[in-house]
Design a protein that fits this description.
Strand content: 35-45%
Oligomer: single chain
Helix content: under 10%
Number of strands: 18
CATH architecture: Beta Barrel
Number of helices: 4
Shape: globular
Number of domains: 1
Radius of gyration: 23 Å
Distance between the termini: 26 Å
Largest sheet: 16 strands, antiparallel, barrel
Order of helices and strands: HHEEEEEEEEEHEEEEEEHEEE
Length: 460
């Protein structure tokens, strides 16, 4: 309700400003909307073992929604601008077949959400530029990523899960301060340094602060190389949440103890599992069109670009669960196939994520645990033999590879896009009820699961 009131106030203010010629020069309004429709062609329904939350049958279900939004930019002074961007979605749910006699939960629900609310300032000289922003802002450091990748901000640390989905690659948001310094060597070559000091809002534990930095070098628009790091939950507001070993009211012994620590009976030392950690990222993009003129002829702007990204999600090793960094090292590669301007982009992306565990934040939110999710297990007692199937707790290998095919074409103010994929799109947004009934597992839990989606967008 508060967001709706804020939207109405923004519209009223904009109307007043446009009525005043002087004010209208300081306010820029734009709007957009899109209709999405798709279908899950193959999905895995997980049985509710132990204390697991009941799953939905997504196989064959349709996915649809309509979103619209308004963006306002306000000039606040020399080189200073304010941004306010709000959206509204219909949030269509999928059918829960355990309630076959009722379809009321399929009624559309209007849900407002903020996309951007920040203040920015920019200083530009002949060879340097500084850009700073403060507030709630979108972030994207890999301009080529259409679905997979963007690991630094679209992942957990411990537990190291990944997030992706149809046209979500540029939808990640941060809260805090972002500064960028750019050094221009020539019209086509530059160096960028980005620094982020942000509040932890998306991932549990919330309320802490993270520090991230990314360095990028662009050489003649032919090669772009980037590396960065994120110190997740670096500053603890409440260490009982960041390192749950210290929360004695909840983790007071028994099976729960093995979710927060691992005693060593030989040395007397205790490993304290934590959500805190450092993620590392490296990537590059190659555009071979530069070699033969930059593609001003029959090739499109995005054609032939090859890109790669990898990360280490949690540099420090821990006993039993996180003993090998290579298991926390996703790798993705993408290529924009030439369409000779028939499409704006046709991108194919593949990913290998060698984690032996299910890719989900299920236990992060429901048990406050930084350990992996194993179906049917609420808490772990590592002294029991039944916790060690196949020599590794909960080991799975049928989800190591993910893939995505994305296409898009703009027609004036309209754009048509589509995607076929097996990725890391989670189930929660399509499930009805309070958070306790959500599942944070993927729509496509296995490499052979897949879905398709299409979208018609407009912007004015």
């Amino acid at each position: 309700m508060k967001v709706c009131k804020l939207l109405l106030c923004s519209l009223a203010l904009s109307a007043i400003c446009f009525a005043d010629e002087q004010c209208s020069e300081k306010v820029k309004l734009s709007s957009w909307g899109y209709l999405t429709f798709g279908s899950i062609r193959k999905s895995h329904e997980e049985s509710a073992k132990g204390n697991a939350v009941k799953d939905y049958k997504f196989d064959g279900e349709a996915l649809a929604d309509f979103d619209a939004g308004i963006k306002a930019e306000f000039l606040l002074g020399e080189n200073t601008k304010g941004r306010f961007h709000i959206g509204l979605t219909t949030a269509f749910m999928v059918a829960d077949h355990s309630y076959a006699n009722s379809a009321e939960y399929l009624r559309k629900r209007f849900v407002p959400y903020i996309i951007d609310a920040a203040v920015e300032k920019k200083y530009v000289s002949d060879s340097h530029e500084f850009f700073g922003e403060f507030g709630y802002f979108p972030v994207k450091y890999n301009s080529q990523s259409r679905n997979l990748g963007e690991y630094l901000f679209r992942s957990g640390t411990y537990y190291p899960y990944l997030v992706s989905g149809f046209e979500l690659a540029d939808k990640e948001k941060l809260v805090g301060l972002h500064g960028r310094f750019t050094k221009y060597f020539s019209e086509k070559s530059d160096f960028k340094a980005d620094l982020y000091f942000t509040n932890d809002m998306r991932d549990y534990p919330i309320h802490g602060f993270s520090l991230s930095y990314i360095f990028s070098l662009n050489l003649a628009r032919f090669l772009e190389v980037s590396a960065g790091a994120m110190h997740a939950h670096l500053i603890e507001v409440d260490r009982r949440k960041s390192t749950p070993f210290y929360d004695k009211e909840i983790f007071d012994g028994g099976d729960k103890m093995y979710d927060v620590c691992l005693p060593d009976t030989n040395t007397g030392d205790t490993t304290k599992f934590t959500f805190r950690g450092t993620k590392l990222m490296g990537r590059f993009t190659i555009d071979p069109k530069v070699i033969f003129g930059g593609g001003d002829g029959i090739l499109g702007k995005e054609d032939l670009k090859l890109y790669f990204e990898s990360a280490i999600l949690g540099f420090k090793n821990y006993p039993v669960w996180y003993e090998n960094r290579l298991e926390r090292m996703p790798v993705m590669a993408g290529f924009n196939f030439p369409t000779f301007k028939l499409l704006d982009v046709l991108a194919i992306e593949i990913e290998h994520n060698p984690s032996p565990y299910t890719n989900t934040a299920e236990r992060v939110w429901k048990q406050r645990s930084p350990l992996p999710y194993i179906p049917g297990k609420t808490y772990y007692n590592l002294s029991k033999d039944d916790q060690w199937p196949d020599g590794k707790p909960g080991a799975i290998t049928n989800d190591d590879f993910k893939w995505s095919v994305y296409a898009s074409r703009k027609f004036g103010k309209f754009r048509i896009s589509g995607q076929i994929a097996s990725d890391h799109h989670i189930r929660a947004p399509y499930m009805l009820g309070p958070p306790t009934s959500y599942r944070y597992t993927e729509l496509c839990q296995r490499s052979t699961d897949w879905y398709w989606m299409t979208r018609v967008s407009y912007a004015f």
